[in-house]
Each structure stands twice: as C-alpha cells, then as structure tokens.
Design goal:
Layout (H helix, E strand, L loop, with lengths): L1 E6 L7 H10 L1 H8 L1 E2 L13 H8 L3 H18 L3 E5 L12 H7 L3 E9 L2 H14 L12 H8 L5 H12 L4 E5 H7 L2 H8 L21 H15 L3 H4 L2 H12 L1 H9 L12 H11 L5 H4 L3 H8 L8
Parallel strand pairs: 1-3, 1-4, 2-3, 4-5
Helix pairs in contact: 3-4, 13-14
C-alpha cells in the first residue's frame, strides 16, 4: 500500500512557502527519494492541491473522485513509492462533513496527516489580517468588527477537537502534529517539514524561492479594513472598476492614507489589535488544547499554544 502524506495546514503556518519549495523541487525529490508531489489536483497557475478541497466544498463527489484516481494513476506511472498532497483548505470547517467521503476515496493509500498548529492569538491575528488583505471565490474581503471575526473563527482554536476529528479516520498514531511556534524557534519550518515527510534536508540546495503570502503589518491591516468598508459602500460597478483599484493602491501606499485614517469616522476606521476582553475570550476558549498532551504534543509544545501575549499575561 502506497503511503500518502496529507498536509492540511493550518493556514498561516508557512503553507505557501512549503508548497512553493516542494513544487519547485518536485522532479528532484521524485528522482532522489521516490516521493511524488502530483500535478493532479493542482489548479492552473497554482502550486497546491486546492482542486481537491474545492471539489469537496462543492460536494462534487465525481470531481473529487476523479482527482484522487488521477493522483493514483500518476503515482503508478512514475513508480512513486510515496505521495505528498498539500492543501490547507482541508483544515476548514466547511469541508468537515466531507471527510468520510474523502477517506473512503483514499482507502487504497496508507494515509498520514501532517498539520502545523499555531498559538491561537497569533493564528487568529494573522488570519484576520489575511481576510482583510484578500478575498477568495468563497468569501469577500473582511469588513466586519473584531468581535464578529471571533464569533466566526474562534472555534477553529479548539485544536483538540480538530485533531480528534482527523484521528477518527487515521488514528492518533498517524497524526503528525507540530507546533509552528516551536518549529520556527528551534528548527526552521522547511527543515521541520522535510523531517516530517522523511526527506533529506534540502536547505543547502534550495532554489531562490521568496516568501509568499507574507502577513501585512498592523498599519496596513488597519488601512485595508478601512478601504474594504469604504468599498463596501460604493455602487457595485465602482467598487469593481479599474479606477478604484488604482486609487485604492495609491491611497493605501502613500501619506494620504495616514491622513485619511485620521479623517474617517469610527464606523470606517477600527483598531485591528485584539483588546484585553477579546484576548481573554480566546484564552478561555483555547484551554481545551491542554488535552493534546501527551497524545500528540509535548508539555513544552502545549505551553506554547497556551501562552498569552505579554500585555495580558498573569
């Protein structure tokens, strides 16, 4: 039975960087180690297997089955010994109900799950900034308040329930859980991922791959939220116009942006840093993650997940 590594994120744990490196090295990795990073399931002009996630989101079982069959055929034609799939979209709650179908379709493979968790405070802050920065076919750029964001996304910080869901299909022993905060501190995320997939350390021979999808800073996120809210009040044709896109870029990147933030009303401009009450809300919700020790994490790793920002530590 062919081993299949399924890398499911989380979002904002350097997934795009990992995917970019593995995609760039895919031929070399296959030749030297027998690990296939298949092209099947990777949409045009992309580097990850988001086609599989999209099919599951649409509940299109025929499309998802076709992708998995194509992956199997690609593995047989290349005589691959192992397979690596990567799509952080599978970590979302919007595909949770499709997991039984997914694992039924993957029954010919010996599946291991690789997932990087992240301190909930930093995870949610980075996710918020991402939602402000970019829209997707599945959601518009964020225009709501921070409390509304927590109402929508806070349950994602119950990492124990998340891991338990995936373990119900592959067993806890086939769940490779890493803490992003620790891997960045002690090893480096790429070295950590190479080790998780039993690849040699390619760090010394990596191509010139720039970080992608880099988190914007506080000022840019605050400006982005204000621009999203302004845009949301425009007539549809103006919000989508080339004129507005160009004007938005110049406003956001110049001194006029700072002046605009000072002039706009509070209904448009909002702080994008969690306040004490919101941080306490996150802390109370995430205490359940202590149960990940000793199942899949060390005590040190759990402590990293539970640590509060210094402003509210007690």
């Amino acid at each position: 039975m062919t081993k299949l590594y399924l890398h499911i994120g989380l979002q904002k744990t350097a997934t795009t960087l990992i995917q970019k490196v593995v995609y760039t090295l895919r031929d070399q990795v296959l030749d030297e180690t027998g690990l296939l990073y298949p092209l099947a399931g990777i949409p045009d002009r992309m580097i990850a297997h988001h086609g599989l996630t999209w099919a599951l989101r649409k509940k299109n079982s025929a499309e998802a089955t076709g992708i998995i069959e194509a992956i199997g055929e690609e593995a047989r034609s290349t005589r691959a010994e192992r397979i690596l799939l990567s799509t952080e979209g599978l970590s979302g709650s919007d595909v949770a109900l499709e997991l039984p179908f997914l694992f039924e379709a993957l029954r010919e493979f010996e599946t291991e799950i690789i997932v990087y968790l992240r301190n909930p405070f930093h995870f949610l802050e980075s996710l918020l900034y991402q939602y402000i920065k970019l829209s997707t076919p599945w959601r518009a750029a964020w225009t709501g308040s921070l409390d509304e964001f927590l109402d929508k996304e806070l349950e994602r910080c119950d990492f124990y329930a998340f891991c338990e869901r995936w373990a119900s299909f592959v067993g806890w022993e086939n769940l490779r859980v890493r803490v992003y905060d620790r891997e960045i501190r002690d090893y480096g995320i790429l070295q950590s991922f190479f080790e998780a997939t039993q690849l040699p350390d390619y760090s010394g021979t990596l191509p010139d791959v720039r970080r992608a999808n880099v988190r914007q800073d506080f000022k840019a996120a605050r400006m982005g939220l204000a621009m999203n809210r302004l845009e949301n009040r425009f007539p549809g044709f103006l919000a989508k116009s080339r004129f507005w896109k160009k004007a938005r870029y110049h406003i956001s990147s110049g001194r006029i942006g700072s002046l605009l933030l000072d002039a706009l009303p509070t209904g448009i401009v909002e702080n994008v840093e969690f306040n004490r009450r919101q941080l306490e809300r996150i802390r109370e919700y995430s205490t359940v993650n202590a149960k990940l020790y000793p199942k899949v994490l060390s005590r040190d790793e759990v402590d990293l997940l539970m640590r509060l920002p210094s402003a509210v530590e007690t």
